[in-house]
Amino acid sequence: MRAIPTERGTCPFDPPAGMADEPLGKVRLANGDHVWLVARHDLVRQVLADTRFSSEIEGGFLGSPLRAVEPDAGMFIQMDPPRHTRLRRLMTGRFTVQRMNKLRPRVEQIVTDTLDALERRPRPADLVEHFALPIPSLVICELLGVPYAEREEFQEAGARLLSLTSTVEEQEATLMRFAGYLAGLIDRKRAEPGEGLLDDLLDTDLSDDELIGISVLMLVAGHETTANMLSLGTLLLLRHPGQLALVRQSPDAARTAVDELLRYLSIVDVGMFRRASADMELGGQVIPEGDFVTCSLAAANRDPALVDRPDELDVTRPKSPHVAFGFGPHQCLGQNLARMEMEIAYPALFRRLPELRLAVPLAEVPFKNDMAIYGVHRLEVEW
User: What is the pTM of this model?
Assistant: First the structure.
């Protein structure tokens, strides 16, 4: 049985080599578990939409075997209905397009301030540290009501929790420390309420454990994904100057470019597992009850049935029903915020720094093959 491919191939922007060899087949994880790998777009959507493929699972790549669990409080990404429905419904109204658009002027100011600081730095500069990471970190801090001065708490926790080289024990210790910090933050907010989302949630029927679980998800997911897209997307566009020029010149192109970059790069690929709660038919194959399934979002987004010329980057491509944000009841809650941040940040960067270029050979860029969310650890640039 073939092992699941995890590292990107000779082109660091493409899905792992061999990921799409079969639309549906059994693979072996690094921990020895055998799972079904789904790589075809329509089948991926079918799995992610059907709650009979249970999300109440832990384990996977980190050495621990996959198993069904009772999810921790607040971790609704690992919940099935009705528990998932209750928490998801509570959060959905707080992340609508309308609400996110009200944040647009503040996001634009954050991007401008970040670029001001970047321009003052010695060159070359690390675009991850001084552009891609600060923008979503500050946005999520202001949205949730977390002091920006305490951002290292969730940035460091996120890096450890998403590392594919951490041990289970290291991950558990990180989560315990992070939960302790969040418990203290919630106590402070009760004593001195503010205006962030976490303050709003104090007035709901959520328990403290649920508040902590939701906070972990929001803080880690709210900055890691966008930060990696901003840095990796910038690198990809620097390799395609004609496409970059379109993003710089046209607001409409910037909007379609974000959707195309999400599809093309698919920085969250495998790692979200499901378990068949009954014998399930999928693509003409019976998935026996109890078997585990994972989906390759990167392979699904390069499916020729999804778009023409799927391996070609085209920032003018009409919006497609890609699965970069997942699909179904667990589709990314913060996608409207992430899209807005990228639609503002990419063109602002390329207009402010029209001579932006990579300061090292591509072969020297440290890609995140060791992380559950793909990107670059550093991106040295000059202008």
Answer: 0.95
